[in-house]
C-alpha cells in the first residue's frame, strides 16, 4: 500500500505498547485505510484482495458507504467469510448469493429499489433454507425480520466478537446488525452491556 501521510503514534488497547500509524492507499480497492506503518508497508492491500467475492465492484459504483451497500456486503459476508461467526448459520449451511448479485452491486441495487427497499429495512429470505436470490428475498423491518427468522441465539463468542468489532471501530451498528442478522437494538444492547453481560 502507498503511504499518504503519517498519523503519529497510538497506544495499544492494553496500553503496554505504542506503535506508529499512517494513512495508506490500498493498491487494489483504492480506499484510504489507517494501519500501523509496518503493516501498511508490508501489505499491498487492506485485506480486500483476499475478499474478492465480497469486495468486487467497490470502485465501480462509488456507493460503498450507502446503507444498501451494507445490506449487500453483509449478505455476502455471512455466506463467504469463514472468519465471521455468523458464517456458520449461512455459508456453512450451504447458503449462497446468486450469480446475478455476487459480483454486481448495481444489479442488486436495481432489484432492491424495484422491490420496496428503503433505508432501515433488512433483507429477508422467504425460505430460511434457501439462497439469496430475487425469488427468495424481500425487504422487511427489523421487528418483522426478527419474527420471521429462526430464533437467534447468539453464543458467548459471537457476543464478544460483536463487541470487539465495534470497539475496534471497524463497523457501525447497522453493519453489525446486517452481519449477524439481528436488529440494531440488540447490537446496541450488546455493546452497551445491557444484554448478554
Distance between the termini: 39 Å
What is the element string, with H for helices and E for strands?
EEEHHHHHHEEHHHH
Low-confidence stretches: 50-59
Strands, count: 5
Order of adjacent strands in the largest pleated sheet = 1-2-3
User: How would you describe the shape?
Assistant: globular
What can you see in these coordinates?
The protein is of the alpha+beta class and 197 residues long. Helices cover 39% and strands 16% of the residues. It has two domains: 2-46, no CATH class; 52-197, no CATH class. It is built from ten helices and five strands; from the N terminus they run E-E-E-H-H-H-H-H-H-E-E-H-H-H-H. The strands form two sheets. It has a three-stranded antiparallel β-sheet. It has a two-stranded antiparallel sheet with strand order 4-5. A hairpin with a 6-residue loop joins strand 2 (18-25) and strand 3.
Amino acid at each position: 500500500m502507498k503511504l499518504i501521510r503519517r498519523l503519529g503514534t497510538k497506544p495499544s488497547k492494553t496500553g503496554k505498547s505504542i506503535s506508529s500509524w499512517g494513512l495508506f492507499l490500498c493498491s487494489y480497492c483504492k480506499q484510504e485505510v489507517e494501519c500501523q506503518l509496518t503493516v501498511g508497508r508490508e501489505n499491498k492491500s487492506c485485506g480486500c484482495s483476499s475478499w474478492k467475492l465480497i469486495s468486487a465492484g467497490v470502485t465501480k459504483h462509488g456507493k460503498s458507504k450507502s446503507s444498501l451497500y451494507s445490506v449487500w456486503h453483509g449478505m455476502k459476508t455471512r455466506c463467504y467469510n469463514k472468519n465471521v461467526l455468523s458464517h456458520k448459520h449461512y455459508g456453512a449451511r450451504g447458503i449462497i448469493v446468486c450469480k446475478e448479485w455476487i459480483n454486481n452491486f448495481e444489479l442488486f441495487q436495481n432489484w432492491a429499489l424495484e422491490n420496496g427497499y428503503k433505508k432501515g429495512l433488512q433483507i429477508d429470505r422467504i425460505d430460511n433454507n434457501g439462497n439469496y436470490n430475487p425469488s427468495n428475498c424481500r425487504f422487511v423491518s427489523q421487528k418483522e425480520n426478527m419474527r420471521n427468522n429462526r430464533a437467534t441465539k447468539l453464543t458467548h463468542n459471537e457476543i464478544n466478537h460483536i463487541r470487539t468489532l465495534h470497539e475496534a471501530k471497524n463497523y457501525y451498528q447497522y453493519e453489525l446488525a446486517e452481519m449477524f442478522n439481528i436488529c440494531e437494538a440488540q447490537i446496541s444492547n450488546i455493546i452497551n452491556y445491557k444484554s448478554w453481560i
